[in-house]
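Worked example (supplementary).
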Amino acid sequence: MSVYTASTTAPVNIATLKYWGKRDKTLNLPTNSSISVTLAQDDLRTLTSVATSKSFSEDQLWLNGKLESLESERTQHCLQDLRNLRAKLESGDSSLPPMSTWKLHIVSENNFPTAAGLASSAAGFAALVVAIAKLYQLPESASEISKIARKGSGSACRSVFGGYVAWEMGSEADGSDSKAVEVAPQSHWPEMKAAILVVSAAKKDTPSTSGMQHTVTTSDLFQQRIHNVVPQRFEEMKKSIQDRDFDLFAELTMRDSNSFHATCLDSYPPIFYMNDTSRQIVKLCHQINEFFNKTIVAYTFDAGPNAVLYYLQENETKLMAFIHQVFQRNSGWESKFSKQDLAAFDSYFANTVAPEMAFDLDQDMHQGVSRVILTQVGPGPQDTNECLIDEATGKPKN
Amino acid sequence: MSVYTASTTAPVNIATLKYWGKRDKTLNLPTNSSISVTLAQDDLRTLTSVATSKSFSEDQLWLNGKLESLESERTQHCLQDLRNLRAKLESGDSSLPPMSTWKLHIVSENNFPTAAGLASSAAGFAALVVAIAKLYQLPESASEISKIARKGSGSACRSVFGGYVAWEMGSEADGSDSKAVEVAPQSHWPEMKAAILVVSAAKKDTPSTSGMQHTVTTSDLFQQRIHNVVPQRFEEMKKSIQDRDFDLFAELTMRDSNSFHATCLDSYPPIFYMNDTSRQIVKLCHQINEFFNKTIVAYTFDAGPNAVLYYLQENETKLMAFIHQVFQRNSGWESKFSKQDLAAFDSYFANTVAPEMAFDLDQDMHQGVSRVILTQVGPGPQDTNECLIDEATGKPKN
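After joint prediction of all chains, the assembly is encoded as:
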């Protein structure tokens, strides 16, 4: 039998201007525009291979080695949209194989533990949609493809681009103008790095899908956020990226994370995503910026206790002097820094920071953290020769 | 020498609609009106005796046995206002001793550890002002006196009344219409009880005086709270008290506590008063209300991690079945409940709650709590024969 395959990788993105609230749940249309930084894929990525063949009897998905259902309405939306675009192509060129009528096999793997609580659905749906678009040889632009990914998982639309990405909320009822666009490519501001402090959560958080609608319907402060706070911040943050103004970018990022979590707390009953460790990290970041009398680090928290710290390469020693001092017992350092690098951070702390430091470091903070992930801004989905599907059988290789 | 003395007790009050933000720092004029419940004085009260005599050489204050300064601008405001009112009396009746020109000795004691982190300044300033007004035999109404207490500590104006109290923010620049009024006396709704869970705080919180101005100047959501949320809530909460509608009173109380803490989190840098134990208590209260499918408890948190739970006498066994189950290892139970009472709570939990309970209780929650204070709605400042000042010497007895 002839089996057609295509593969791609897709990145994780971490919002600096948060998506929280849908105006249309079926189409995943947001109540406000958002902005994110796409992270490097050597640290965090989804690899997805797709195959189609006249001989396949049903759509099937293997996720991290396990057969999973494709029944979810969101996944079906994505597959239907992609098949419709393929059908349009086929109707104009009878030489094309009628893939739009064939079943799909999808095999997907993450290179990071989903246990880390890092939203993997964004990378997952972006990879799914981009891989199938590639298989179908669709001519649509990345922004057009992002609308399909958006229907799978809102934030997935931002993972279709690399670098600095905006999700424009749009105003059309059918979502035709709610899409991701590139604010700036990775190459515009390649010095942006990220340190993710994976915080151990005692309990499962409220799922973001239900959590955000709970906020929309119950928070008195939420309307102020989406109507009077975010629209101006959206323009300011885009400009801060275009101007490579880290000071402004960092303040807007920290303010927006706090604003988002404030509307969660203002929900009824309240939703809590940050815990005491998250708050200790927030205070530490402000202490670090105060110590250097300069904004060298920004924190942001998604719908969970994990902290993502953004900083510029030029300030790495200054920041890591503190972060390694506090979190050196946590795993994740050796994969990115040499013994010499780490020694340099420690000596900078001992010789330059400690003598001047006017506050105490929370010595127990590291106990609330399970691991450190050190990464940076990265590109969008990448072609790959690695294929997870056996072209002979159309099934997963492993 | 002839020494004139007067003594009074004054209560603590815990806001159910929060005071957070000043429009005038000198006069303690708030950015929104607030509502509170006055708590019983056998559990929490300040006893203040004042004395004046031609022979006194300086104003002096003994607070909980220690000589303290009276220099603070706020205290001086209170003393000056009271002396001005006394002088007016004297000018109309030459037979009155010219106390307005004499020095004051003030002796004040709390019956609760200030360590508990329960705002004692409200009871303290209310007692100070009421005792001197009594010494001076001022004819002014309690609301008039509350304006003077307000200048000492904003929330102190609410401790001039018992029962259910509103602080009307007023609009005059001189504060002449920013005063406390009685929403309903204790006798209107005497079944209101309060359980205070004193949460051990690792670090000192941001002082509320500086904290609230930080929120006023940096929170994007704060203006929404004071202009569009609190004014309507103020009217609804007063009505819920007049109607004895606990369900509505409780929801408004919980929503307002969350709204206040949300604006703290939205401040930049953010302010955190609630900790993980506070949040566990919030979740427990919602679980309890869900379990009974009825709102039997409301939580509220001031500028610190302590939880104050309001409930009605009729629901005491239902609520305490849970609260004693979780916090039985904490001190404070025996002073209010007999062994039989506590056994009744435990058996209600074992026989009625446990078999039906669909969630787990956080077994470690009690570790974050230092003690339980069980109290209820109470009256305003009380006359007392107990005098802390030796009339012969004009000095503290002890």
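Two points are worth noting when inspecting this output. The longest strand of chain A covers residues 45-53. The radius of gyration of chain A is 22 Å.
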